[in-house]
Amino acid sequence: MMKGGGGEAAAMVAGDERYCEAEDRELTVRKTTLFSPGDGLEAYDHRTGELAFRVETYGRGGVCGGAAAAGDLALLGAAGEPVLTVRRRRPSLHHRWDGFLGDGGAAHQKPLFSARRSSILGGAGSGVLVDLLAPAAGHAAEFRVEGSFPRRCCRVVVAGADDEEGAEEVVVAEVRRKVDEGAHVVLGRDVFVLWLRAGFDAAFAMGIVLVLDRITGDELDGVLSDELLEATSPVRVV
After folding, report:
1. Buried (b) or exposed (e) across 130-150, using 16+ Cβ within 10 A?
2. 203 backbone dihedrals φ, ψ, rounded to 5°
3. Are 41 and 16 in contact (CB under 8 A)?
């Protein structure tokens, strides 16, 4: 469960304040391509049902061009405008990915954020660290991802928020499985919820989701476990 009051630590305009809302927000994220991680995602606003973001891969017939390289992931807004471009850094022992504003094609453009495994040993169970390098607000920050993205059960925590004795950790985003409340069914992993704390940049959060999908994919240590296979199919809530 989410802890902490949020406050200033949770308010974070990474790229554009249009993607930050004054209230907690939920996005319903749906994988549109199930055969390869990150190749297709759509995110809908839970309250309105309207499309908020979608994802395309450059070099595979996508509508975006610019100076992006083949294999880059493009986070597009509802109108199809490029919001973020996520690109793998090579070589990198930590499986590092960088996120750029727009199509990432500007000359000498510095990344907005950088994400990496916390351990070079890898494995879907290892943590992920995210550094916000050049936010619009002008304040760099570090986040850590706890839990398991393949199981659709993880959260993004402000790193250092619990360094002080007695301080509560601040969770700014959380991925969890989607429940069809009408049918009382927990949906499969291809549909999940992205919860956002008030004031946190939804586009930045979606960029983190893209990186998690690439770093951890749908496998645990290279093998689909029985528990994960069960999580693939809808489960009725008793």
Report:
1. bbbbebeeeeebebbbebbbb
2. -65, -40
3. no
The pTM for the full model equals: 0.80
233 pLDDT above the threshold of 90: no
CA distance 120 to 202: 28
- Return the DSSP state at 19: G
At residue 97, the 3 state secondary structure works out as strand
Cβ-proximal residues to 230 (8 Å cutoff; 6+ apart), any chain: none
Give the pLDDT confidence score for residue 38 in this predicted structure. 45
Terminal-residue alpha carbon distance, the chain: 21
101 CB burial (10 A radius; 0-12, 13-18, 19+): buried
Tracing tokens 């290279």 back to the chain, one arrives at 222
Q: Measured between alpha carbons, how far is 224 from 129 in angstroms, rounded to an integer?
A: 24
Quote the CA–CA distance of 102 and 122 in Å, as a whole number.
Answer: 29
pLDDT tens-digit map of 12-26: 677 788 999 999 999
Best CA proximity match to 12, nearest among 159, 108, 168, 140: 140
* Structure tokens, 146: 């706890």
